[in-house]
Automatic annotation (TrEMBL):
It is found in: Membrane. Keywords: Membrane, Transmembrane, Transmembrane helix. PANTHER family: MAJOR FACILITATOR SUPERFAMILY (MFS) PROFILE DOMAIN-CONTAINING PROTEIN, SOLUTE CARRIER FAMILY 17. The keyword Cell wall biogenesis/degradation does not apply. This is Sialin (inferred by orthology to a human protein). It comes from the Eukaryota.
């Protein structure tokens, strides 16, 4: 079996003096973070789900007090703005039918607790028989249970296209892919706002397009990170960028509730989608001006930073002009490191889905928290996940630069801590009943904090194994993750029939076992080194010269000579760069 190629040893990044930001790399990661945060206005993928609560009329509240009705009043939704908007879009009478709620629960979407009270939506308006005809209020729809189910299922179908969009991310300009993703989502939200009253099929089409936009985004971001960041910094860039999902979750829920409860702007619920589209268009304008597919296309980047990135990524064959090969699917599908990373990501996401999707139901059923308390406590694990992801991703970069530990060892250590912590803290929470509710919440927050270590672990491995094909590998991975997102709620609902402590314990036991699998698989077969099949044959020669062209008026070309005796013997390469004016 051929050995993997040892990565290029990097120097510390140069000290730069930009006026508003420390480096263009940091600015790029920040823009990607804002992209993920803003995309949460459109969707919330299987990694980050949320729930909303709202008031119902007295009859509905009474119907939800029984144990059977409570399970029927739990609705899974996959999108934070859609989760709140659907409450405003449908006439209150539609919520009186437990069949509707039960159907949507069956349709694997997120958690909308229908049994509580929260002042996000005006009670009088929601309980009014003429709510759909309120002066200045937008029209509300009489969607059936099946139609509501199709709306949320459409997102999952769009998300499954990631298997194909991953290939596009490696072949085409990742900047334009990201812009295209935002524009598609913006158009989808405008379509929902304008045409939902005409036909439910427009809403279904809009939701499908939102799923497609998400499928375009993640592979494109991973592909762009491999081009913009040296290997030692990719973990931190990935954590900062994808942390936008958690940040968006914490900010969007109250904003959607406020927009939903007013009628001054576009009559209420349409304002959620108009705001989403407006922010998306604003982001496109900013990113078009500041973003770039790779450093050599950024006209404002300093020569020191450009040379640092170029020299660090020389032996990875990144960039569509250098890569004239097809995706080596046979080698990818036969690669043990690839499959160990794929399995690790799936095993990380599966219990994470259970935690975030069903946490409100668990806290209510087992620990008897009120709806107001539930809403606050359910946000704490998401905040812990965000903080942990940022800090642990930086720790990965710090350890690579300041210690002699290899990149693979660092990823395995962090991923092992994440998997063990996630699994064991979930298991420990099953030992506590309602008399120890605060301690149970602390354990759940600790499990989410440990889950953040998977970003510099198995997810960092995805962009390290084959940087030139990171989009394809990301698409393959998250195709299975999306499939798991469809299966997870079905299994959980099959287990949790009455909401007893024993039933929830069974769900957490399953999540614990799944979370612990990567402790074995990733530690045995995992890797964060560039694989031999991810390189062209010319990379094994004794030397090569790469010319990186920039449009900077000061330097036209940066030429770097890359010399190494033998990659297989882990020889350190020497890199010399010169400027040609």
């Amino acid at each position: 079996m051929a050995a993997s190629v040892h990565p290029t040893e990097e120097k510390l990044p140069p000290k730069l003096k930009y006026r508003w930001f420390p480096s263009w790399r940091m600015l790029t990661a920040t823009l990607l973070c804002l992209c993920f945060s803003r995309m949460l206005l459109y969707f919330l993928n299987v990694k980050n789900l949320t729930y909303e609560t709202t008031k119902f009329d007295t009859k509905t509240a009474e119907n939800c007090t029984s144990r059977k009705a409570k399970s029927n009043c739990s609705v899974h939704m996959m999108n934070s703005n859609m989760g709140m908007a659907i409450v405003c879009m449908i006439k209150p009478s539609q919520f009186n039918h437990s069949k509707s709620a039960n159907y949507i629960f069956d349709n694997q979407s997120t958690l909308l607790q229908m049994e509580g009270s929260q002042n996000l939506i005006d009670e009088k308006e929601m309980n009014s028989e003429n709510a759909g005809k309120t002066f200045g209020a937008a029209e509300r729809m009489d969607w059936s249970a099946d139609e509501q189910g199709y709306i949320f299922s459409a997102f999952n179908l769009g998300l499954l296209t990631m298997l194909g969009t991953g290939l596009l991310a490696d072949k085409f300009n990742a900047k334009y892919m990201i812009i295209g993703s935002v524009l598609i989502a913006s158009f989808a939200n405008l379509l929902i706002a304008v045409a939902s009253a005409l036909s439910v099929y427009y809403t279904i089409a809009g939701r499908f397009l939102v799923g497609v936009s998400d499928a375009l985004l993640q592979p494109s971001v991973n592909s762009l990170i491999t081009r913009w960041f040296p290997p030692t910094e990719r973990s931190y860039a990935l954590g900062l960028a994808t942390g936008g999902r958690q940040l968006g979750t914490l900010l969007i829920v109250p904003a959607s509730g406020a927009l939903c409860s007013q009628t001054i702007l576009f009559g209420g619920w349409p304002s959620i989608f108009y705001l989403s589209a407006s922010i998306g268009i604003a982001f496109v304008i900013i990113y078009t001006a500041l973003g770039a597919d790779k450093p050599s296309k950024q006209t404002c980047i300093a020569e020191k930073e450009l040379k640092f990135i170029t020299a660090s990524n020389l032996n990875e064959n990144i960039g569509k002009k250098r890569m004239q090969r097809k995706v080596p699917w046979l080698q990818i599908l036969k690669s043990a490191p690839v499959w160990s990373a794929v399995i690790a990501v799936i095993c990380h996401e599966f219990p994470l889905m259970t935690m975030i999707m069903f946490l409100p139901s668990y806290l209510h059923d087992v620990h008897h928290y009120t709806t107001t308390e539930n809403g606050i406590l359910s946000a704490l694990p998401t905040a812990c996940l965000w903080i942990s992801k940022i800090l642990s991703s930086y720790l990965n970069t710090f350890l690579q630069r300041r210690t002699k530990l290899s990149r693979t060892i660092i990823c395995k250590i962090l991923n092992s801590i994440g998997s063990l912590g996630l699994g064991l803290f979930l298991w420990a929470s099953t030992l506590l009943d309602s008399s120890h509710a605060p301690l149970a919440v602390i354990l759940l927050c600790a499990s989410m904090a440990c889950a953040g270590l998977h970003t510099p672990g198995c997810q960092a491995s995805l962009v390290s194994l084959a940087p030139a094909f990171s989009g394809a590998i990301t698409g393959l991975t998250f195709f299975f993750v999306a499939s798991a997102g469809i299966i997870n709620p079905i299994i959980t609902k099959w287990i949790v029939q009455k909401g007893t402590h024993l039933e929830w314990n069974a769900v957490f036991y399953m999540s614990t076992l799944v979370a612990l699998i990567p402790v074995v698989t990733f530690n045995i077969w995992g890797s964060a080194d560039v694989q031999w099949w991810a390189r062209s044959s010319k990379d094994h020669t004794s030397s090569s010269t790469v010319i990186v062209t920039t449009e900077s008026p000061r330097v036209r070309h940066t030429t770097c000579d890359f010399n190494v005796i033998n990659f297989q013997q882990h020889q350190k390469p020497s890199v010399k760069c010169s400027e040609n004016v």
